[in-house]
Sequence to fold (296 residues):
Amino acid sequence: MSDFSLARKRLDLLISSGRLPNTVIIESAEGAALAARLASAVVCVQPDVQKPCGSCPQCKKAKASTHPDIVEIRGSGTTGSLKVEAARDLRTDAYVQPNDSDRKVYIIHWVQGSTDQAANALLKLLEEPPAYAMFILVCASAAALLPTVRSRGVLISDYAGDTSVQTAKYRKKAVEIASAIAAGDGYACLRMLKTLEKDRSGYKETLSALCGLFSAAFRLWAGIVPSGSNSKAAALGKKSDKEFQEPETANQLKSKYSASRLAGMAAAAQTARDSLDRNASGSLTTLLLAETIFNA
Ligand SMILES: [Zn+2]
Fold:
């Protein structure tokens, strides 16, 4: 459970800093619990304690899920993906002043497969949020978010540093695996995945990066590139593109596979990472992932 303590520690540091940003992205297996903790801390009125105190009237309402200024948003359907209508409703609601508290908190459960239209509607809100509003995006992997959305928020993650040498190493690995997939070389792909099985945190990082690559290739199909209409967003998108994506690899994938295959691969990479979080066997995870990628 050391993964959990890391995100929790980071969250408590952010809360005690007293400088809460408008958008927080929580990438954690315990995301829902951490989001609830943060929302409660935001509305908590107990002075001079580490928030949330858990016992003031605001905390009690938060705990009972009856706080009028804490709104939880989940997508629909079996996958729980967020549709553009839901994102638009959220936007309308966000401009209604809070009731009970100084702030209004939205907990948004973001899953892979939520539409890019929904992401773009959400992005508009994150770019010009009402001062009292706070958005907590909960996701299994920040790679599932558009880079422009990701760059708006402070990331609270189970995973160690984002720009470390280690991360660069696993991103490189992900690019190699994706190239093998683009070349249709199932054997090379399987062999590279297998070398990661003993290094679970490295395997998870590689899978996140892979998921990002598949998503980028999918977005090429959908014709979605960081918007040029908003130069600020475009600049932010560009900055994180450099960190998370490899346009060349995405293009190779796009010329080999259909949009639906690529979406399936992105989902499979995320599922694989989630199952490693739940302590699934590394070799079984590899097997299921390779099977989904090559036999879809
Ligand atoms: Zn409290």
